[in-house]
């Protein structure tokens, strides 16, 4: 009876303790990325497979400020730094054999739910060995890297307190695993568990942030509406029959008038190329210019382009020296430096013709989403592909697809957000059923341009290679839809942490899903790289994006639409918004990427930290409380931030508790808060 009481006491003490996880990385366990047997090229020629690489080691990150993903996920839990029982014991074992300096980075904190389940099951396995004294050499999992991370069983006496304590904790841990596995929805991937968890944690962070000031409320709404892929709520108002009929007639008449005003030319905007080719060739004769463009500043341009492999190149100066052809010279230089013209058999003249045609279809009047942004993302993608940890991991065809995707990812961007196009019932939104409207359009335009005369840069590729390349490009460009941000982040973090917990030693990347997942996140990082660039460049990008936001806000005001968050030029500053934008969006993404390629991205993270600290130091003092009170009296319908999930996504376990993500505003509340405007977010 005394033992039962002790067991019950242990159960109560350890109930609901599965939140923070520490995985011990032994010295002999290496987490390498290998190319494996890849069929992505579709053929042996023109960018075939490469030999396996052992260059990428997933190791513990150095001590630095962690993102919100590592904070507590429950009001009932202690800090996520708290370790599960077995992880704590494993850590103690490690401390007995490791020098103090090596112990500092001997543990990795696991935050993705699926990896947590794996870690817990490994804990159960180790506990079972201790309770039963089963020889580890009898296990099929006792060979290879697994054996190096499996602790030797402890000698415990049945019936004594240490034995009972371990038995109860093992049962609790196994019960927790069963609870989580029973709530997994079979039609969803395991990475969805992480995505839902991260959304819930972001909701908590944004709720606190929105309560800090009126500007925090607006920033929270902006982040929620831009970076979370949420189901649109449908309001079904109660109307009498006469009102409904009258409303329907008025609506149909308004839409008919709108279509008449726009005319038949609107559909040509959807078909791919909205305007005819504006040039033949900008160079004369058969010789392709040294840097892909003719310019009187060839020597100075060459000096800048010699740093194309470096992070933070001055893309603005390149635009000036290249006769406003930054995309053409960046793409040409990147392909040439990688010898892709020979490997993929791309005629240089055809390549220049295509990229110039592509650049002509970027809207020059856009302050931000123009060919300068495309050139910046292409150069950033090129640099990330050069990461030492990824050396020989991707094939030439995959590299070509990534650079091509980066160069086309915003072609013919109208300078408006997806949500604006949806709210205004644009032809593009109708064509693509409100799903990744702009991203689908960018792809359609780019592949249509390939059909122009002397523009098919892939004409020498086999049919299989073209199909494979097209699929990869489509996946990567669709991943630049910022509403997919949290899913991309969750996918990558789950993959990295699962491989660490499994202890298999090798991240093979031997299938399309894993390989394209890394490439999608690579391009996504490049698209969200402005805050990681030198501060003068970053601030310049911020100004350009804000002007584009303001132009949309002006248009919304003229059309009597609700002004989108951060788009009101009469009520806008940027400091606190950039601080929040980095903390909640940019830093978690780059933190995860840095974990994948550690230590190659440490300087990028350092620059991001410095830029965050600079914007934090520039945040103006908050107005006194009586200011907010008077403002609230004048505007009683202040935004209220809240998040919701579609009921079909609402989970039931400790990991997947409900997430709420939406914002409420009234028709009168069209003004933005005067404190904060985030920037560098894809529209």
Summary keywords:
single chain, 683 residues, mainly alpha, two-stranded antiparallel ribbon, two-stranded parallel sheet, 3% strand
The end-to-end span amounts to 65 Å
User: Strand portion, in percent?
Assistant: under 5%
- In this structure, how is the largest beta sheet organized? 2 strands, antiparallel
Strands side by side in the biggest sheet: 1-3
Q: Could you name the ranges where pLDDT drops below 50 across 5 or more consecutive residues?
A: 12-37, 43-55, 75-106, 142-148, 232-249, 251-271, 278-282, 631-679
SS class: mainly alpha
Tell me which oligomeric state these chains represent: single chain
Number of strands: 6
The geometry reads as: globular
What is the radius of gyration? 27 Å
Helix content: 40-55%
Keywords: cAMP, Hydrolase, Metal-binding
GO biological process, one term: short-term memory
Active site: 369
Domain PDEase: 293-622
Task: Tell me briefly what this model is.
With 683 residues, this protein is mainly alpha-helical. The chain has 26 helices and six strands. The protein has helices spanning 2-14, 85-97, 100-103, 113-132, 145-149, 161-183, 190-212, 214-227, 241-262, 298-305, 315-321, 326-337, 340-343, 348-360, 371-385, 396-408, 418-423, 427-431, 437-449, 463-478, 485-502, 512-527, 535-558, 575-597, 602-617, 625-634; strands at 21-24, 32-33, 107-110, 506-507, 640-644, 660-664.
Explain the layout of strands and helices.
Layout: H1 2-14, E1 21-24, E2 32-33, H2 85-97, H3 100-103, E3 107-110, H4 113-132, H5 145-149, H6 161-183, H7 190-212, H8 214-227, H9 241-262, H10 298-305, H11 315-321, H12 326-337, H13 340-343, H14 348-360, H15 371-385, H16 396-408, H17 418-423, H18 427-431, H19 437-449, H20 463-478, H21 485-502, E4 506-507, H22 512-527, H23 535-558, H24 575-597, H25 602-617, H26 625-634, E5 640-644, E6 660-664
Parallel strand pairs: 2-4
Antiparallel strand pairs: 1-3, 5-6
Helix pairs in contact: 1-6, 4-6, 4-21, 7-8, 7-21, 8-24, 12-14, 12-15, 12-16, 15-16, 15-22, 16-20, 16-22, 19-20, 20-22, 21-22, 21-24, 24-25
């Amino acid at each position: 009876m005394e033992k039962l009481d002790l067991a019950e006491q242990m159960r109560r003490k350890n109930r609901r303790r599965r939140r923070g996880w520490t995985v011990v990385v032994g010295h002999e366990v290496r987490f390498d990325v290998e190319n494996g047997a890849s069929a992505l090229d579709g053929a042996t020629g023109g960018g075939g497979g490469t030999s396996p690489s052992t260059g990428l080691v997933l190791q513990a990150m150095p001590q630095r400020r962690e993102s919100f993903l590592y904070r507590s996920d429950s009001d009932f839990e202690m800090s996520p730094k708290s370790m599960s029982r077995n992880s704590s014991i494993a850590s103690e074992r490690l401390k007995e054999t490791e020098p103090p300096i090596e112990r500092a980075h001997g543990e990795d904190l696991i935050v993705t739910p699926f990896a947590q389940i794996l870690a817990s099951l490994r804990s159960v396995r180790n506990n079972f060995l201790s309770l039963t004294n089963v020889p580890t050499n009898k296990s099929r999992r006792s060979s290879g890297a697994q054996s190096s991370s499996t602790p030797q069983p402890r000698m415990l006496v049945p019936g004594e307190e240490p034995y009972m304590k371990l038995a109860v904790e093992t049962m609790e841990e196994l019960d927790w695993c069963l609870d989580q596995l029973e709530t997994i929805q079979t039609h969803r991937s395991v990475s969805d568990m992480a995505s839902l968890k991260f959304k819930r944690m972001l909701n908590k962070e944004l709720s606190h942030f929105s309560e800090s000031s009126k500007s925090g409320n607006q920033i929270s709404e902006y982040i929620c509406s831009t970076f979370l892929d949420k189901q649109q709520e449908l309001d079904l108002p109660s109307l009498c029959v006469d009102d409904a009929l009258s409303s329907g007639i008025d609506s149909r008449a308004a839409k008919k008038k709108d279509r008449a005003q726009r005319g038949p030319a609107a559909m040509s905007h959807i078909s791919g190329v909205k305007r005819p080719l504006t040039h033949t060739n900008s160079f004369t004769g058969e010789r392709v210019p040294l840097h892909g463009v003719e310019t009187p500043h060839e020597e100075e341009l060459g000096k800048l382009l010699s740093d194309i492999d470096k992070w933070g190149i001055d893309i603005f100066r390149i635009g000036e020296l290249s006769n406003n052809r930054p995309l053409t010279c960046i793409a040409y230089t990147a392909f040439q430096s990688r010898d892709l013209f020979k490997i993929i058999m791309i005629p240089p003249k055809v390549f220049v013709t295509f990229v110039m045609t592509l650049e002509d279809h970027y809207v020059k009047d856009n302050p931000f989403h123009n060919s300068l942004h495309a050139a910046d993302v292409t150069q950033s993608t090129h640099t990330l592909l050069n990461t030492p940890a990824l050396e020989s991991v991707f094939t030439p065809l995959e590299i070509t697809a990534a650079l091509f995707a980066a160069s086309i990812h915003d072609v013919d961007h109208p300078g408006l957000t997806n949500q604006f196009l949806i709210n205004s019932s644009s032809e593009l939104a109708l064509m693509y059923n409100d799903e990744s409207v702009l991203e689908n359009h960018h792809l359609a335009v780019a592949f249509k341009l390939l059909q122009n005369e002397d523009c098919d840069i892939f004409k020498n590729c086999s049919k299989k290679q073209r199909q494979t390349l097209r699929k990869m490009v489509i996946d990567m460009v669709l991943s630049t839809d910022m509403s997919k941000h949290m899913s991309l982040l969750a996918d990558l973090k789950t993959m990295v942490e699962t491989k660490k917990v499994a202890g298999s030693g090798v991240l093979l990347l031997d299938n399309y899903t894993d390989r394209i997942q890394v490439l999608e996140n690579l391009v996504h990082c490049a698209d969200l790289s402005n805050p990681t660039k030198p501060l003068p460049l970053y601030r310049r990008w911020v100004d350009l994006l804000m002007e584009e936001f303001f132009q949309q806000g002006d248009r919304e005001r003229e059309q009597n639409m609700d002004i989108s968050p951060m788009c009101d030029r009469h009520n806008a500053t940027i400091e606190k918004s950039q601080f929040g934008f980095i903390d909640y969006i940019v830093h978690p993404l780059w933190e995860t990427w840095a974990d994948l390629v550690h230590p190659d991205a440490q300087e990028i993270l350092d620059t991001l930290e410095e830029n965050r600290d600079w914007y934090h130091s520039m945040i103006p003092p908050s107005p006194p409380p009586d200011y907010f009170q008077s403002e609230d009296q004048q505007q009683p319908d202040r935004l209220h931030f809240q998040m919701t999930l579609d009921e079909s996504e609402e989970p039931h376990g400790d990991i997947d508790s409900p997430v709420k993500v939406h914002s409420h505003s009234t028709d009168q509340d069209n003004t933005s808060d005067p404190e904060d405007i985030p920037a560098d977010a894809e529209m």
